[in-house]
Amino acid sequence: AGYDTINSVHHFSIPGSFSENATGQFSNFRLSSNVHVPGRWAFRTDHGSRGCTFNNLPVQLGDSFWSDRTCAQKCTCTSAGLQCRNQPCSFSQICQQTSFQFSCQTVQRRTCTISGDPHYYTFDDTVFHFQGTCTYVLSEQCNSGLPYYRVEGKNEHRGSTQVSWTRLVKVHVYNDTIELVKGRRGQAKVNGNFASTPFSLSNGTVQVYESGFSVVVSTDFGLVVSYDTNHYVQISLPYTYQNTTCGLCGNFNNQPQDDFRTRQGQLVSSDVVF
C-alpha cells in the first residue's frame, strides 16, 4: 500500500482488507521520518471491495483484459461483475501476456503490397513489376525460431498475355492451409473446403474475417494477410520478423538494395532472375 521513496526498507502493506492494522507484521516504518516531508511516501489504493476476481486473482473495478493467449475475448470488471465479450485484437495489434493477464498491444510493423498487373512493393519499399503466371512464394519465415508461415500468390492473365493479376492467395500457418480466392468475398477455403467468414482456427490463434472489401487472415504472432478477391494483396508483419523472411516481398531488413537475394544467399540484379 505504501513505501518510502527514499528508503524502501520502510513500508507497509494492507493485505486482503482495509481493516488490517498497518503496524503489525506487514509493516516497517519510522513515524518520525515521514511526518510533513513531501514526496517521501508513495501509495496505491485498490478498490478491492468493489472489484472482481479472475482465476482467483483480484481485478480492479474498471480494468479490462483478454482472458487467454488468443486474445479473442475481452473482459472488463464492472459493478455487476466480470463482463466478457468477443473482441479480438485488431490487425495492428498482437496478443501479449502481461502479469497474469493478456492484452492487445500495438506493434510496429511493415507491409508488403501486391496490386494491379502486378506491382510489388516489398517490406523494405523496393518496387518492381513482374508478369509471371505461376504460383510464387510472396513471403515465408526462413531460418528462424519464430512461428512459421508461408504466403503464396497465384497469378493469371486477364484479357492480355502481356500482364497478369493475382487470382489466389494461399496462407500456410499452424498446419492449416487457407486460400483466399478471386471473386469469393465473404468466404475462404480451409484445407480444401470453403467456409463463410468470420471463423477461427487452431484454438483461436488464427482469425479469418472480412474487413472492408477484403478477406483477412490474422494470426496471434502478428501476421496479417488481406486480399480484396480481385487484385490487391497486403502482407503485414511485426518487427519481430525483421531479417527472417524470404520470397518476393523481400528479407525485411530495412535495406531495399538487397531485396533480390536468393535462398542460397546470392544477390541478383533483376526481379526476373530473382
UniProtKB/TrEMBL annotation:
InterPro entries documented for this protein: Alpha-tectorin, VWF_type-D
A Pfam family assignment: VWD
Domain named VWFD: residues: 110-274
Name by which UniProt lists this protein: Alpha-tectorin-like
Organism: Pundamilia nyererei
